Amino acid sequence: MTPRPAPLWTEPHHDGSAVHGPVLGAELGSTVQVVLRVPHDGSGETGVRAVHLRYVHDGEPSYAQARAVRTDAHDVWFAADLPVRNRLTRYRWLLDDGPDAPHGYRWSTAAGVSTSDVTDATDHVVSTYPAAPGWAVDGVVYQVFPDRFARSGADHGPLPAWAEPAAWGDPVVHEGPSTARQLYGR
Fold this sequence. Notes:
CATH class of the largest domain: Mainly Beta
Low-confidence stretches: none
Helix content: under 10%
Structural class: mainly beta
Mean pLDDT: 85
Distance between the termini: 61 Å
CATH architecture of the largest domain: Sandwich
CATH topology of the largest domain: Immunoglobulin-like
CATH superfamily of the largest domain: Immunoglobulins
Number of helices: 1
């Protein structure tokens, strides 16, 4: 029988909410604080010897020591300063459980907690791009494809060399080399 995984609330946690740090709109060149929640055993002990923030600056990994900033009934909250030097700054958490722990260390990323080294693909990201305007949250977007409208009788000129003509009722090619070449309305 396969053992059941531990409930998520028993794992360290960090996400894109304002509770854990800035979501969007961090200022380029600034330093922001990010926070990791680590559950404790009821006595305030997490079993974690140290917490580090690993971030990437211009393709090179760097580390910052996290510090315990708050303890509540269930968790210890660790904070670290993250320098925002790129438009998109990637980071993850390293939890050092000590040499006597089953795995020694764990990574906490946007994909969850891992006991082995992981790629940057699942790292958290701080963005310097501004948040979308409030009206966009509930907005409906309609994308217009001008080449899809019937243009009967119009002189379209020669078909571009890259184009593969498609009739109005032809299905859209959604994969393969023809995806970018399909041209309707000819």
